[in-house]
Design goal:
It is a single chain. It contains three helices and five strands, in the order H-E-E-E-E-E-H-H. The protein is an alpha+beta fold. A hairpin with a 2-residue loop joins strand 3 and strand 4. The longest helix has 22 residues.
Amino acid sequence: MTFKKILFGEEAMLALKKSKGERVVDGRMIAIEHDGRRVWAFVPYNRKPRQKPLVMTLRDLVNGWIKMGRKHIGVYSAVSSKLSPEEAVAVLKRDICEGLDQVLEDGTIEEMKDFFNLMGNKA
């Protein structure tokens, strides 16, 4: 463990003393035991970029898509807001049902499950 000397202002030092070893300064400062001594440590922010889960497109719809990931199948479809509610629902149902029927006929879902099983924990 490496140590760096950091100078704190009075307000920060008062906050450290009042905390009695609890996390302070937005959860980043903490008192730890090191070589039998109690020292203050700064826990750095996690600056690693978040890993997006692997998601693959099964089928492109007229105004949307059907995608599959390791845990979920997602369906997105959009229609113009200028349509009446009945027309909008009819168009959405038609697009989504036709797309899902094609995916079932193709056997794409089974292929994707096999792919994710081969990927193991990498996806």
